[in-house]
Specification:
The protein is an alpha+beta fold and 609 residues long. The chain has three domains: 15-159, Creatine Amidinohydrolase, Chain A, domain 1; 172-314, Creatinase/prolidase N-terminal domain (Creatine Amidinohydrolase, Chain A, domain 1); 316-603, Creatinase/methionine aminopeptidase superfamily (Creatine Amidinohydrolase, Alpha-Beta Complex). It is 34% helix and 19% strand. The chain has 19 helices and 28 strands. The strands form eight sheets. A six-stranded mixed β-sheet has the order 4-3-2-1-5-6, sandwiched between helices. The longest helix has 28 residues, at 319-346. It is globular, with a radius of gyration of 25 Å.
Length: 609
């Protein structure tokens, strides 16, 4: 039987403990003369995946999603989660203790303004709250005529007796044959960006920015090869890299020592204060903790709040990274086709469970011989579980794949040459007409993104409606973004660009994003079709007045033709699907075993065949 080595199916949080733990937290807050406290789902770097020692929100509330927050007052408490986690939050959290609020529609600051007693005080952790977040909290407290207080130490830690130790995974050098550019060249580019921004230095608070800049990788957080670290990069002079020396082998320390002065993370505040005097220091408004701004300002420096200058450089992949992404997706395509063929053989018998499918897919990826990790815990939802957008199967929730249902599997891999993320929705047995009709609407939106042409400088927010239009016309929609940026052997969710209503960053050639419209019917099924795409320059059009961009699809896996309603597709949409399937067949077919090749030929046959 197949085995999963990179993910667990155990319950990670216990909602039954919520009442007891909130009671203890309230007692601790009362002792500190605080009327309430904001519990963020964040570490000091605002990572998506955080070490176990930073899982305060999950420990306190039971909510295990990767984005959210809670506000605990003396007489009430609320958990905030976005649309991806609406159903999950209701299942994981004790709703007699917490009300569930939509993170976007009613953010914490609005709830605080309505519920925090006048003349009260609200505490926050300045190491785990960004500059932007503090500004919003301060305005909310002002509206409530209350006071916002930065705490010296997190009060949750005072009651979390069994809190795990911080991680100490070894740091590895990321070979230039994968990175495509030396760390020296990247630092020179960063220096030029700082000069343009009229900044004396930048603090890199995002470990992905540090990892990319210095060409290092690590293992401090799950599924993302990050070493938790900080850096101060001056416009002129040698950078400072703050990383626990216990993570550095001699070879790694020697290599990094040529690039930067190595410091322990505990020295960050003192060293930053020394370098900040009468200097302008750039802090990333998305990831920098408020505490760093306090240090700079107290030392007589000026905070330049703005985007991390590394973020866009990292998002635009160079030729080596692009070649690596293509190779990674080809390798991943072989594993995906083997998995989908296996699923088609085994699932109709009704013996497979969601865990069986997750373990099999991971096993097929390990068979490539190149898998370093999965890029996130596999989402494998059969029937009604597929409607939970970020569902994570556990032994308790595990469900069999039943005939007449849909099975949604969203997964990804970390290879040294690239990161993958792909979703396929598969019919188990005979799907209903409604399932097929709505799958086809989602497919039409997916194809609209894949075929899109747009002027250079267009933002993701302008493109997001392309995917929704077919669903909107039927009075339907989905409550998540259409796409996110993807790193190169880094985070599977990478900024600054994304295809969403909030995606304001302009798209540019070399960026890799996901294309993943969906539809979810609560209690019945979920549909999502996701490929990764590369932003490329489009062929010049006669008479065009602007440079045009488009998307090249990187993912190589069939889309389930059994779920397509032929009559709902226009000719150009059929042509796109046939061409995509021909590409998968021609590129992946010769790499498959004799048992899987005939399955792929059938799965990628033309729509009208």
């Amino acid at each position: 039987m197949f085995e999963a080595k990179f993910q667990s199916f155990e319950e990670r949080a216990d909602p039954s403990k919520g009442a007891e733990r909130v009671k203890k937290l309230r007692a601790e807050l009362k002792k500190r003369k605080l009327g309430g406290f904001v519990v963020s789902r964040a570490d000091p770097h605002q990572n998506e995946f955080v070490p176990p020692a930073e899982e305060r929100l999950a420990w306190l509330t039971g909510f295990s999603g990767s984005a959210g927050a809670a506000v605990v007052l003396q007489d009430k408490a609320a958990l905030f989660a976005d649309g991806r986690y609406g159903l999950q939050a209701r299942e994981e959290v004790d709703r007699s203790v917490f009300t569930i609020e939509h993170l976007i529609e009613r953010p914490p600051e609005d709830w605080i303004a309505d519920n925090l007693p006048a003349s009260g005080s609200l505490g926050y952790d300045p190491w785990r709250t960004t500059l932007d977040q503090v500004e919003k909290l301060a305005k909310a407290c002002a509206r409530a005529k209350a006071k916002l207080v930065a705490v010296a130490d997190n009060p949750v830690d005072a009651i979390w007796r069994e809190r795990p130790a911080p991680p100490l995974a070894p740091v590895k050098l990321h070979d230039q044959k994968f990175a495509g550019e030396s760390a020296e060249a990247k630092l020179a580019r960063l220096s030029a960006e700082l000069a343009k921004a009229k900044c004396d230095a930048a603090v890199l608070s995002d470990p992905a920015a540090v990892a990319w800049t210095f060409n290092i990788r690590g293992g401090d957080v799950a599924h993302t090869p990050l070493p938790l670290s900080w850096a101060i990069v001056p416009r002129e002079g040698k950078p400072l890299l703050f990383i626990d020396a216990r993570k550095l082998a001699n070879e790694v320390r020697t290599a990094l020592g040529k690039l930067a002065a190595i410091e322990e993370p505990r020295n960050l505040e003192a060293v930053l204060a020394k370098h900040a005097k009468k200097k302008t220091i750039r802090l990333d408004q998305a990831t920098a903790p408020r505490r760093l701004a306090d240090v700079i300002e107290k030392a007589g420096g000026t905070v330049s709040k703005g985007p991390d200058p590394v973020a866009r450089m990292k998002a635009v992949k160079n030729a080596t990274e692009i070649a690596g992404m293509r190779a990674a997706h080809q390798r991943d395509g072989v594993a995906l086709c083997r998995f989908l063929a296996w699923l088609d053989r085994e699932a109709p018998e009704g013996k497979l469970s969601e865990i069986d499918a997750v373990a099999a897919l991971e096993s097929f990826r390990r068979d490539t011989g190149a898998l370093k990790d999965i890029s996130f815990p596999t989402i494998a939802g059969s029937g009604p579980n597929g409607a939970i957008v970020h569902y994570r199967v556990t032994r308790k929730s595990n469900r069999r794949l039943a005939p007449g249902e849909l099975f949604l599997v969203d997964s990804g891999a970390q290879y040294e040459d690239g990161t993958t993320d792909v979703t396929r929705t598969v019919a188990i047995g005979n799907p209903s007409e409604e399932m097929r009709e709505r799958f086809t609407l989602v497919l039409k939106g997916h194809i609209a993104i894949a075929r899109a042409l747009f002027p250079d400088g267009t933002s993701g927010a302008q493109i997001d409606p392309f995917a929704r239009a077919p669903l909107w016309a039927a009075g339907l929609d989905y409550d998540h973004g259409t796409g996110h940026g993807v790193g190169s052997y880094l985070s599977v969710h990478e900024g600054p660009a994304r295809l969403s209503k909030l995606g304001n960053a302009p798209l540019g050639p070399g960026m890799v994003l996901s294309n993943e419209p969906g539809f979810y019917k609560t209690g019945a099924y979920g549909i999502r079709i996701e490929n990764l795409v590369l932003v490329t320059e489009a062929r010049a059009r006669e008479g065009a007045e602007k440079k045009l961009l488009g998307f090249e699809t990187l993912t190589r896996a069939p889309i389930d033709r059994r779920l397509v309603v032929r009559g709902q597709l226009a000719r150009e949409e059929i042509d796109w699907l046939d061409a995509y399937h021909a590409l998968v067949r021609n590129e992946i077919g010769p790499l498959l075993d004799a048992e899987t090749r005939p399955w792929l030929d059938a799965a990628t046959a033309p729509v009208d065949k």
